[in-house]
Write a structure and sequence with these properties.
The protein is α/β, with parallel strands linked by helices. It has helices at about 40-45, 70-85, 95-105, 125-140, 150-160, 165-175, 185-190, 220-230, 245-250, 250-265, and strands at about 5, 10-15, 25, 50-55, 90-95, 110-120, 205-210, 235-240. It has an eight-stranded mixed β-sheet, with helices on both faces. The longest helix is centred in the middle third of the chain and has 16 residues, at about 125-140.
Length: about 270
């Protein structure tokens, strides 16, 4: 398996379609992993070189288990890009992954050809959101002692959407995973500071997508994020049956033509 070792001892796992096409680095959502982007790896290659990264606490990445923040996750992305000899890239992600992409763009704006932000936000949680997600993700998911399946099924329905098979893939991964290794990732998500006032210097073109059934990352929220960026933006709502948050997984036939159109225009 391909790994890049960071200065603080993490082995960051990634998947790479290879090839000579322009590079696109994609980062998964919280609780998911790099395989979330399998549909895009299939639809964009070989015209584009698609690299997907397991962030700390997820997938095959091995980390020391010490605290980290989104700046550290962004540095991990650039460590992979550097190890692969990549210059300017397109950065993309879904929520958690989108925050990583925004932080990476802040660190090295000259290396960013474009941004693909799906169901993403730049602000921190408000107190009500913080309390709710802390209860669900940290206390019940990571630190809970009750069986995971009831809450996992609820989250799969709300977060993944799609059909039973598309949810089953992640339910099976969650069932056989060590839920406690997500602790530092969930803490980083809960404790993150807002960067909405710091992204105007990101002038790369951006495509923002969200699912019509995503009750958190609404069109209004995505348009607000678009207005905070410093470059040209395009916001698209993906509307279909059983569509919620993880739209590139469940409805790639609707998202990927828009993504390819965006990439081709860069």
């Amino acid at each position: 398996m391909p790994f890049v070792t960071t200065g603080d001892g993490a082995d960051v796992h990634y998947l790479d379609t290879g090839g000579d096409g322009p590079a696109v680095i994609l980062v998964h959502d919280i609780l998911l992993d790099a395989t979330q982007w399998r549909p895009q790896m299939a639809s964009l290659a070989p015209d584009y070189r698609v690299i997907t990264i397991d962030t700390r606490g997820h997938g095959e990445t091995r980390d020391p288990g010490t605290p980290f923040d989104y700046t550290r996750l962004a540095q991990d992305c650039w460590a992979v890009a550097d190890a692969l000899g990549l210059g300017a890239v397109v950065l993309g992600g879904l929520f958690h992954g989108g925050i990583v992409a925004l932080q990476a763009a802040r660190l090295a704006p000259a290396r960013v050809r474009g941004l693909l932000l799906i169901g993403t936000r730049a602000d921190a949680y408000n107190p009500e959101e913080y309390a709710g997600y802390k209860s669900i993700l940290l206390k019940q998911w990571v630190l809970g002692t009750e069986p995971l399946e009831p809450i996992a099924r609820l989250i799969a329905a709300q977060m993944i959407g799609g059909d039973t098979e598309q949810q089953r893939y992640w339910l099976d991964i969650w069932e056989r995973s060590d839920r406690k290794r997500l602790e530092q990732a969930i803490i980083a998500l809960l404790e993150r500071e807002g960067i909405e006032n710091d992204i105007a210097d990101i002038t790369a073109p951006a495509l923002l997508l969200h699912g019509a059934g995503d009750v958190v990352h609404t069109e209004a929220r995505m348009r607000k994020l678009a207005g905070q960026l410093g470059g040209s933006t395009r916001v698209e709502t993906i509307d279909a049956e059983r569509i919620t948050h993880t739209i590139t997984w469940t409805h790639p036939h609707l998202t990927d033509p828009l993504i390819r159109e965006f990439l081709d225009a860069l």
